[in-house]
Each structure stands twice: as structure tokens, then as C-alpha cells.
Amino acid sequence: MQKYYLAIDIGASSGRHVLGYMNNGKLTLEEVYRFENNLIKQNKHLCWDLKGLFQEIVNGLKICKKQNRIPTSMGIDTWAVDFVLLDKDGQILGDTVAYRDSRTNGMDRKVGDLISLESLYQRTGIQKLNFNTIYQLMAVKQNHPKYLDKAKDFLMIPDYFHYLLTGNKCVEYTNATTTQLVNLKTKDWDYELMDLLEFPRDIFKAIHMPMTVVGSFRKDIIDEVGFDCQVVLPATHDTGSAVLAVPSKQEDFIYLSSGTWSLMGIESMKPYNSAYSMEHNFTNEGGFEYRYRCLKNIMGLWMVQCIRRELKSKCTYEELCQLAKEADDFPSRLDVNAEVFLAPESMIQEIKYYCKKTNQPIPVTIGELAACIYHSLAESYAVTVNEIERLTGITYSGIHIVGGGSNAGYLNELTAKATGKEIYIGPVEATAIGNLLVQMMKDNVFCSLKDARECVYHSFEIQKLI
Ligand code: LFR
Fold first, then answer.
1. In this predicted model, what pLDDT tens digit does every residue of 60-97 receive, in sequence order?
2. Does the global pTM surpass 0.95?
3. Ligand 1 site: residues with CB under 6 angstroms?
4. Matching SUPFAM superfamilies, A to Z (predicted)?
5. Which of 238, 252, 328, 329 is catalytic?
6. Burial (0-12, 13-18, 19+ Cβ within 10 Å), 397
7. Is ipTM beyond 0.95?
8. How far apart are CA 338 and CA 355, in angstroms?
9. pLDDT per residue over 363-383, tens digit each?
């Protein structure tokens, strides 16, 4: 009988249920369900609709049942840094505020009063992003101290969904490291740091590694979806999963996980937390079997997604690429990592304003806007490649571009030109694949990550651009 594994991969703009199974030695994927995800305004804050998302998780499970393809195991991954605080009855305290919300403004100073930036980086190896969990928790402490007083558990978003499915609270390692509260050396919660910040240490429970069994479905979930299933922890941070699926045959490679964010970096068994890496804001996120993802967050396709939404444009991302290509010689460039692009009221106005302020031609058409973004992204990738090579002292021959954004052909071409590297494109569904690989390693389908990556290499078409 065919054995199926189910990855539920939820990104900032959509989620999907992807079944994976082996077919003639190849990993085969089938998307059984897809749903939207959007930021919503709640009590003046940008929030996630966790209730709605959980309903979608259940809806997709019901479809598996309907198709009579019951997975052997399943696991959920999402974006990082966001969390819930649960009270003694397992109920969420407060709104589920999203990381793009402005509640973290000024929180870096509050944290900075208690611990220096250098010291925080030394302890955690995590880059400074104003939306890191540490700053979000500081905002809760400032504005809603009662939530922290009442909290019994801290869970990241995928942990919370796993809890709703199984009744078991289980914090997963790769995502926990993005809180900036995990110690780089001990690879465990940094309780000293929590004391320093006056965060209640007892709400941060034991951290578990990918491949840990969380449990089986609760009775009410079994009744609703029509089957029971074992929940196995994948790398619950989507980027952690995506990087697992990079089909590299070489030890040393640069990856670009391309989606709402562009995450560019390397995988390493040792962290890089020198003064140079701090200055260039490289992070060391925790990975499978305690690997590190030394990478940088670059604003990514978020900017294009916003423009498309703002114009209520029906054009596909391929069409957008085409329009951008037609405006290829539009000369303006943006600092894609400028804070102003994180969550502007209007991305279009913000870009126009930026060009005006920097005395550059102002883009008017959608093609010009997209060209301006794509060129700026490609240039930012090139700078990052140079920084990585300086950081590690290694010259890399190629870059693996994985994830939904690897479909943006024009951006790939610009990236090849700007970096001068060989570009390997795909797989597009890297995040779901990485999620599945961990579950399949747990079930001994693959005996190691090397083995699993080899299978990705043979199972999916990888395009090469030189
Ligand atoms: C990508 C991602 C990035 C993280 C950002 C915010 O989806 O997970 O890795 O920095 O979202 O959580």
C-alpha cells in the first residue's frame, strides 16, 4: 500500500497541504488543498487570523480523507518569530499580532537598555530584525504586562497548531531560535537573558528537535476529519524546511530561499558571529541536527506582492516579470532593506517617495515599479554574495534558488548577471519538500539528509542558468 506523508506549509500569503510519496524511487508531490492567508486589522494592530487558519488546516485534512489518502504522519511549518501566550486553560492571551505590526517600534531601545547589541548577538547569533520575538515580547511587557503574568506557556505558531491537533504542547528548535532567546552555545533557552529582560522563564518549556513525535490527533479532531494521524515535528520554520530541500551535490553552496522574503546564505556546522557578521547583520538560525543557517533577510517579493494587491492586478507573477522586462532600462534603484518597505500603507507611494527623495526618476507603470524592485533585489543579492564570501573565505561557484519566487524568470536572469554565478533554479515547492523529508527520515525512507537531498536532486527538474 502507498505510504503518504503530509506537509502543511503556511506562508504569509497562502497555505497548502502537500502529500508526498515515493514513486519509482522519486519523491512525488500532490497539492491537495490551498488557501489564502492575509494580515487582518484587529484592535488597530496587524494580526493573523489563527482561528481561520486552523479551520483551513482541518478543511485540508478532510480532503485527504475524501480522497482516501490517509497520511502516515503530518507536520506544519510557517513563517518564524510570531508566537502565542497561553493561559492555564490553553487559551490565547491577547491578539495574535503579526511581526509586521508597528508595536515593536522603539523596543530595540528598551532591550538595548538591558543588554548591549554586541552581547545579545554574541549570546544568540541572531541578526537584529526589529520584529524578532524578543522585541515583540518587550512590547507585550510594556503594553500588556498582565498577559505575561497570566501566561503559562509560550508557543510559536506551528507549535500552537500542533497543540490544537494533538493536545500536546511541544516547542520546536529551528523556529525557537528565531525568538533571539536561544543561546548559541547551549542551543537551549537562554534563561539568564530572560532574567535580564524580566521575561518569565517558566513559560518557555523544553525545546524539541525535528523528527520528534508530538502525538496523535485528539478525539474531537479524529471525529471531525475522519482519521487519526501521527504529528511529527518538521523544521517548523519554513526557511528551515526550504533549506533542507536544496538539491546541492556540493558541500559548500549558497542558497536563496525566495518567497515573501529572500533569505540568502549558507549552511554550516559552526556559527558565524564575528564582528564582521554582526556588522553585516548575518544571522545563525538553528537547523536540522544542529546545523546553522547563516543567512541574511532581504525584503524579497513582498514588495511585488503588495503592489499587485494594491492595484488589484490580475496579472500573474510571470506576466509581471514580462512587464518588468519591457521596462528593463528603467534606472531607479531602491535600498530594498529600508525599514519603510516593511509594512507601508501604500507600497507604490513609498517607492515613489523613495525615488523622489533620492533624486531618481519616479516609476509610473506597473512594469517600471517591478523593474525597479527586481533590479534592486538582484543588486542586493550580489552584495550579499560578496559578503558571504568574505565571511567564510570560500568562493562559491553557484547559487541555488528555491521556493515560490524561483518562478520569477526575469529576476533569476538579473541575479545571474549581477552575481556572475551559476544559478540553479528549483524546486519551487522546497518548503513543503523539506517538511516532508524530515518526516520521511523519521520513517526511515531516507537514512540521512545527504540521502534525502540526493533524492530531491533526482526527483525534481533543476534548471541551470549560466
Ligand atoms: C520566511 C520567514 C523568514 C523570517 C520571516 C519572518 O517566510 O520565515 O525566514 O525571517 O519569514 O518570520
1. 999 999 999 999 999 999 999 999 999 999 999 999 99
2. yes
3. 11, 79-81, 99, 237-239, 259-261, 263, 297
4. Actin-like ATPase domain (SSF53067)
5. 238
6. exposed
7. yes
8. 13
9. 999 999 999 999 999 999 999
